[in-house]
Amino acid sequence: MAVFSTGPRSGERYGSRGPRRSVLVALLLACATLITLDYHGGTDSPVEPARRAMGEVFGPVESAAAAAVRPVTAVPDWFRSRSDMRHEIATLTAENSDLRQQVNTSGVDRNRLAEYDDLTSAAKTLGQALVPARVIGIGASQTFSRTVTIDAGSKAGIAPDQTVVNADGLVGRVLRVTSTTATVLLVIDAESVVGGRIGDSMQLGFLHGRGDLGRSGRLDLELVDDSVVPSKGEVVVTWGSQGGAPYVTGVPVGRVTQVFSSLRQTSQRAVIQPFVDFGALDVVGVVVPSGTRSDRAVVEADGRLQ
Amino acid sequence: MSSLKWAVTVALVSLALVLQVSFFPHLAVHGVVPDLCLLVVVAAALVRGPEQAAVLGFVAGVLLDLAPPADHVAGRWALALVVVGYVAGRVRPDGTDTRPTATAVMTTVAASSFVGTSVYAITGLLLQDPVVSVADLLPVVLIAVVWDVLLTPLLMPGLMRVLTALEPGRA
């Protein structure tokens, strides 16, 4: 039996003599149209509503799949050798003695804490509350871009162009949201640009993602002032955008690992190793204005849950 | 029958997409995951021929282009998978009812994977979306081919059996 004569659209007239070219041409034209529409549309491209609709459908499915997979991916953690555990005991003992020492010097720390308190209240007025979320989908390297899906969307109070952080530092920014998910552009993506400030010298610059594929990822720092030479090990934090969108100010990004000076371009280029391990992203926080209404507990700037 | 056939096929593609996004990143090599959607399109090409496979390739590609966390210019995967569906379908041996040999399936998958990922990468280069060098493209394409060939013996027989069973007159 000829397969071609069975399809709903194929071969009724042509039998099994081969496919109709017109279908192929129509499909190729449709692809070209789609690419053109999206390429020239920019942020308000006509494809954007379709993306949103698709996200509404696939978001919950990805969420469920990620939740189902999580116990399986945790399996390697169960198998720990005796030497691992011995190592862990040694670490914990060391930590314990450290903590004991800290308790003995708590007076100094209390003063320091008072200073931190001031900072916290400053943070409170900045309104850096966090909506916690988990990563449920990761873009493949084949797409040559670094994006992830998180399981919090507009219902959780998230909007495009908000900063995404985790416990270690800057993760990226929200590109678009659906009601239950959001797509995050990681700072290591080749199209990501973040204003950065070197912590020690307060020098400003721009952090470009290098688009490294795979688990690792690095950033290039280009300083505004060519005469400044960043030194190895200096910490870079975000410079911050107007109104805190897309990046709030003062989030640690990474550390300078290499410095290149090119005679030809008379500029300094530094390579930044981000604090965040982009290969093991899981729990992240989205910076939202204080008092945002959300479908989940929001971590307020002072550490309270609301 | 034929609407059921298409519904099941699209469901297969969606399942492939969700696995590709939510499960395989945990096993990814250098961030590269197997192209499960491409495997479904190739299986359809081997069972149903180039025309239907090209249509399915378009559907699968649009899903890949629009479902989160995709952020590239929409239509790029659609174009790549239309080409894959058509080319893989033409490779299919002509005596329609003969099942393709294991070697033929392996070769088709390897070639399709290479063509698919390359077409996607080349449109990216042309559109500058995102800006990646050719030196970065090549290893990714090769790892993707190895992944797809490795998964072929595990997935393709089942996929082809399901798709064959959906053909009217055979079920």
UniProtKB/TrEMBL annotation, chain A:
The Gene Ontology biological process annotation of the record reads: regulation of cell shape
PANTHER family noted in UniProt: CELL SHAPE-DETERMINING PROTEIN MREC
This chain's source organism reads Nocardioides islandensis
Q: Where is the Rod shape-determining protein MreC beta-barrel core domain?
A: 141-287
Gene Ontology cellular component? plasma membrane
Described purpose of this protein according to its UniProt entry: Involved in formation and maintenance of cell shape.
Question: What keywords would UniProt list here?
Answer: Cell shape
In which family does this protein belong, per the annotation?
Answer: Belongs to the MreC family.
Superkingdom, natural source: Bacteria
InterPro entries per the UniProt record, alphabetical = Cell/Rod_1, Cell/Rod_MreC_2, MreC, MreC_beta-barrel_core
**Does the keyword Chaperone belong to this entry?**
no
Entry keyword Oxidoreductase = no
Q: What Gene3D superfamilies does the entry give?
A: Rod shape-determining protein MreC, domain 1, Rod shape-determining protein MreC, domain 2
Its protein name is Cell shape-determining protein MreC
UniProt lineage? Bacteria, Bacillati, Actinomycetota, Actinomycetes, Propionibacteriales
Automatic annotation (TrEMBL), chain B:
Q: Which GO terms describe its cellular component?
A: plasma membrane
Give the GO biological process terms: regulation of cell shape
> Can you say where in the cell this protein is located?
Cell membrane
Transmembrane as a keyword?
Answer: yes
Q: How does it sit in the membrane?
A: Multi-pass membrane protein
Fetch the InterPro entries from UniProt.
Cell_shape_determining_MreD (IPR007227)
Top-level taxon of origin: Bacteria
Give the coiled coil ranges.
Answer: none
Q: What is its main location?
A: membrane
- One Pfam annotation reads MreD
Give the record's keywords alphabetically.
Cell membrane, Cell shape, Membrane, Transmembrane, Transmembrane helix
User: Transmembrane residues, as ranges?
Assistant: 6-24, 74-91, 103-125, 137-156
Its family? Belongs to the MreD family.
Record protein name field: Rod shape-determining protein MreD
- Tell me the organism: Nocardioides islandensis
